[in-house]
Amino acid sequence: MSLITLTGCDVGAAFGGFGWPEGITPEANRMYDLWIGSTIAALAVGFFTWGLIFWCIIRYRKRGDELPVQTRFNMPMEFLYTIAPILIVAVLFYYTAIVQTDVDKTSRNPDVTVEVVAFKWNWQFNYRDGIGPEANTTASVLGSDDIIPVLVLPSGRSIRFEETSKDVIHSFWVPELLFKRDAFPGNVRNVFEVSSINSEGAFVGRCAELCGTYHSMMNFELRVVSPEQYDQYLTALQGGSTPQEALTSIGEEPFATTTVPFDTKRTTQNFGNDSASGAGS
Which residues form the Cytochrome oxidase subunit II copper A binding domain (predicted)? Predict the structure, then answer.
């Protein structure tokens, strides 16, 4: 399996991941490897099947009026096309179950816990001093109509996301995490963890569940910084600084760089223009 995985990574990189982005966490890398391996297996089965089809077309094409030999059954062939699919599905199920179990693991004492609160149509990120609903919020970032919320997290530390919603079902999604989880209303807390984030930088985040009129504009930004910068940022927030002031204090851009707020102003004259610009933002 290791050889297949390594080969899959090389092939996946050569073909742009077959449409799957490369992740920034160990969990994302495992899912990426599973995707590449599954795609290669599917292509191998496809080429084998297409080859048999074309071979039969050419080999057994009509050459006259004489009927070919009529075969009632072929035990080896029937055995092959019965057992082979079962083996393929079993292998794919086995590795999928292993990867899924691995990426769904949670720990009792993560380094960072963030409560993700979704609402129409924005986000609130609460930095917590523990896990579960009984923990306390030590600092918070709240998005607004004119400010995209920036979720600042450290690289190299384990991070727990606890998601909930104030109204309808939303979904927390950062494409580079290769992971998204729905945020449900009520007392439901949907939880997942990443053991570390390997790449620093800014990454766009989105709501991935159709939630109403401005669903497509319900964006946020994940900003990954060094552990030292993260500690300074959190201290600044706890000291009363705004998120923008806290970001500036650690040498980061104060506002989101991967997405911009959507102009929600509506008039009879500019409604069509605003809709067009909103669709591209």
Answer: 109-236
If asked whether residues 83 and 143 sit together in one domain, one would say no
Q: Which residues contact 99 (CB under 8 A, 6 or more apart)?
A: 30, 31, 33, 34
The structure tokens listed for 87 are: 């083996």
Q: Are 184 and 254 in contact (CB under 8 A)?
A: no
Indicate whether 270 belongs to any domain. Answer: no
Alpha-carbon distances, residue 198 vs 23, 115, 213, 269 (angstroms):
9, 21, 35, 48
Q: How far apart are CA 41 and CA 267, in angstroms?
A: 54
Q: What is the pLDDT of residue 22?
A: 80
Query: Looking at the structure, do residues 99 and 116 belong to the same domain, yes or no?
Result: no
Q: What confidence tens digit (pLDDT) does each residue in 215-264 have? A: 999 999 999 999 999 999 999 999 999 999 999 999 999 999 999 887 76
Q: Considering its fold, how many domains does the chain have in total?
A: 2
pLDDT score recorded for residue 81: 83
Domain of residue 24, residue span: 2-62+70-103
Helices 26-59 & 2-14 angle (0-180, nearest 10): 80
